[in-house]
Amino acid sequence: MKFGGTSVANYDAITRMISIVRGRLDEKPVVVVSALSKVTDLLYKISDEAALRNRAGAMELLGQLRKRHLDLADELMPDSPEECRDAKEKINGICDSLVSFVDAVCAVGELSPRSKAIIISNGEYLSSNVICCAMNASGIRTNYIDARRMIVTDDDYLKGEPDMEAISDKVPGVVLGAYEYADAVITQGFVSATASGEPTVLGRGGSDYSASLIGMAIDATRIEIWTDVDGVRTADPRRVDNTKCLDRISFEEAAEMAHFGAKVLHPLTIEPAVRKNIPIYVLNSMNPEGQGTAILQSSFIEDGVKSVSCKENILVINIFSTKMINTSGFLKKVFAIFSEYKVSVDLISTSEANISVTVDASQDIRGVVGTLSEFAEVYVDSDKSQVSVIGKNIVNLKGLLEQTFAPLRDCRIYMISQGASYVNISFVVDRSALTDVVRQIHKYLFEV
Ligand code: ASP
Ligand code: MG
Predict the structure, then answer these.
(1) Span 2-228: which CATH code?
(2) Which of the listed residues 142, 238, 284, 353 has the most CB atoms within 10 Å of its CB?
(3) What is the 3-state secondary structure of 389-413?
C-alpha cells in the first residue's frame, strides 16, 4: 500500500491513512510512504541554497522542515506521550544530521549528486518515522524498515536503476523479519541504495515505483497506490472538464498513459507488476470507499479508447540528410548519439531524407544537436506539445482516426506517429493550441 504526499500531508490525511491500513491488517500490508506533500520540493530548495553557500537561507528552510514534523507529531499523538516523544526524538535526530550535512555542503560550496540524494531522501525518512509512531500510538503494532536495506540500484544517485534480482533477493527476508511481532510494516518510497550501501533515490515521483518493486519481490496479491484522485481518468481534469474515471485498464494502457503525460503513476511502476502479473489499484485516500482504477492483464480489458493524454512541453528535432537515401546504418548512427547523451526519445517518424523525433523539453539536447550537426542538417522546433490517444487495439477501431482528427481541421499538425503496439496514436501540435485540441478530442471520443 503506497500513500503519496497528499495522502500523508497532515493530521487529517494521516488519520484517514491509518484507518485505511487498519482495514487491511489481516492481509499483512507493507506500507510505503512518500514525504509529506511539498517536503521533497523543500529539500530540493535546501540543497540548492546549500550549493549556493547560502547557509542562512538553507537553515531557515530546515527550521520550517523540523517544525512542520514536530507539530504534526504533537497533533497526531496528544494522548500517547511515549510514542510522541519517540517520534520527536527521531525527527530531531534526522534534522540534526541534516543540519550538519547541509553545513558541510555550504562550507565546501559543492553539491555532488550523491550529497543531493542524501538531502532529498530525508522527507521519506521523516514521514515514515512519524507515521510509524502514530500507527503504534493508534494500537497497530508497526515495525519500521529502512528501504536502503532492500531497494538496490546502480550508482546513478538521483535516478537509480533498480537491480531486480538483488531486490527480489532481499525484500522478502527483510519484510518477513520485520513482521515478527508486528501487525504492519512501514518503509520509505523513493529511497534506495547501491549494492555497497551508497545512498541513491529512484527519481521524482519514485515512491510508486518503490511500491511495485516491493510488491513484485514479495509476490503481493495486489499493489495499491493511494492518491488524491478517484483513479485514472480519461484526461487530465485540470485541463479538461467532464473527464470520467476508468474502472479498469491494461498494464500496457497504463504504461502508455504514464509515459505520455498522465500524472497518476510514475511511468516505471507498471513493469515490476507485469513481471509477476500483480494487479495495481489506483485509489483515492479521500474517498476510500470508491472503486478506483484497476490495472490488469490485457485479457481482462475491453478494446477501445481509454484516454487522451498529453505532454505540454516537448521539442521536435528534425534531422535532414541526403546521405540517408538508399543507405543502411544511418538510423543506427543517429540513435547512437541520443543514447550517448542519454536523451530519451518519445515519438519517431521518418521519411526518405528526414527523421523527426520528439523529446521532453526538460532534457539537455545541446550535445545531441551539436554531434548530429556534424553530418546532417538539424532544426529544433520548440513550444510544441504532444497529444496521445491511448487504448487497447484502437488501431482496429473503425472511424477512430476520423474522430480523432476531425476536430483538428484548422490546427497545424507537425508529426504523427502510430505505434505498432495498437495502444497509442500520437501527434504534435503547437503548445498554444494544446488545451483546445485535447478538449475537442475528448469531447468527440468521450462526451457523445
Ligand atoms: N517524495 C518524492 C517526490 O516528491 C517521491 C514521491 O513522492 O513519489 O518526488
Ligand atoms: Mg506521485
Answers:
(1) 3.40.1160.10
(2) 142
(3) EEEECHHHCCCHHHHHHHHHCCCCC
